Amino acid sequence: MITTLSPRQAQVLAFLKKQKGKTPSLQKIADHLGVSSRNSVVGFLDHLERKGYIVRDDGVIRLTKLGEMS
Predict the structure, then answer these.
(1) Any idea what the Cα angle at residue 70 is, between residues 4 and 34, rounded to 5°?
(2) Max intra-chain CA distance, the chain
(3) How many Å apart are CA 67 and CA 55, to the nearest integer?
(4) Who contacts 42 (Cβ-Cβ below 8 Å, separation ≥6)?
(5) Can you tell me the distance from the alpha carbon of 32 to that of 12, in angstroms, rounded to the nearest whole number?
(6) CA angle at 40 for the pair 67 and 10, rounded to the nearest 5°
């Protein structure tokens, strides 16, 4: 299932890809995006998970095969 991403969601996904398997903190993602709210980051991650780009489990974020595509 391929769905379109908002510009911010695409920015979060690109940042996660650069982490090469390491899970960045919500604060680190927020800092990268230039937002002050970690709740905003949670919202972006929720959308990416619903769209099938990531899987979150026990605080670990994993890219799915769809999320690993360029």
Answers:
(1) 70
(2) 32
(3) 10
(4) 26
(5) 9
(6) 30
> What does the alpha-carbon distance between residue 66 and residue 18 come to, in Å, rounded to a whole number?
15
**Spatial separation of the C-alpha atoms in residues 50 and 31, rounded to whole Å:** 23
Q: What is the pLDDT of residues 7-55, one digit of tens each?
A: 999 999 999 999 987 889 999 999 999 999 999 999 999 999 999 999 9
Structure tokens at 11: 């920015």
Distance CA 54, CA 46 (A): 9
pLDDT at 69 over 70: no
In this structure, are residues 6 and 70 in contact, taking their beta carbons and an 8 Å threshold? no
